[in-house]
Amino acid sequence: MRGVVVKKGEPVDRALKRLKTKLDTEGILEEMRRRRAFESPAARKIRKARTAPKRHKVRWRYTSPSQSAKAEEAAAAAAEA
């Protein structure tokens, strides 16, 4: 269940804006809109290719040093094999 807690003295408009921002960053609103109508496989492939750079940028922004080390080790092992 997604939600936000309305803080004491906070306007409802501000809490609603925080909720919308949270849903938007998680992609829930976009997915809801997408499921309303049929999407052909070609259109799906185009949409995924268009949004991939944004997804990957967010994913790699939060990589920890230990994850980086593991990725480098895996790349080295793949290069040797």
From TrEMBL:
One Gene Ontology MF term: structural constituent of ribosome
Entry keywords, A to Z: Ribonucleoprotein, Ribosomal protein
Regions of compositional bias (Basic residues) in chain numbering: 44-60
GO cellular component terms, A-Z: ribonucleoprotein complex; ribosome
Gene: rpsU
NCBIfam families: S21p
Stretches the record annotates as Disordered: 40-81
Family statement drawn from the similarity comment of this UniProt entry: Belongs to the bacterial ribosomal protein bS21 family.
HAMAP family: Ribosomal_bS21
Biological processes annotated in GO: translation
Protein name listed in UniProt: Small ribosomal subunit protein bS21
Pfam families according to UniProt: Ribosomal_S21
